[in-house]
Design brief:
With 102 residues, the chain is mainly α. It contains three helices and no strands.
């Protein structure tokens, strides 16, 4: 029985999803940590806000890794990880770019 897709395409898709899970998941977790620490710093001391955000980022990272392999295509895996990371990064860096209080 001959496979319908070449084997190298399958391996490339798995490699792409693995990179989306590791590198993209790390980027998303880092952006979520920064955004959560900034938001939580309004309600609690900064040290506790950073520690809480860091602990919550492990859940974000696990969810991103799960999404990378749950997505229908490798393109949607990358989009589902990088688009939220870019949005969260813009939320964190936006006030600094526009001259607001950081």
């Amino acid at each position: 029985m001959k496979p319908t897709h070449p084997l190298w395409r399958y391996r490339l898709a798995i490699t792409s999803r693995s990179l989306a899970a590791t590198a993209g998941g790390y980027a998303l977790a880092a952006a979520a940590t920064a955004a959560a620490a900034t938001a939580l710093a309004l309600a609690m001391p900064r040290v506790e806000a950073v520690l809480t955000a860091t602990m919550l980022s492990w859940l974000v990272y696990a969810g991103a890794a799960g999404w990378a392999f749950y997505a229908r295509t490798a393109w949607s895996a990358w989009a589902g990880v990088l688009v939220p990371a870019l949005v969260l990064g813009a939320c964190v860096l936006g006030p600094r770019w526009w001259g607001g209080a950081a």
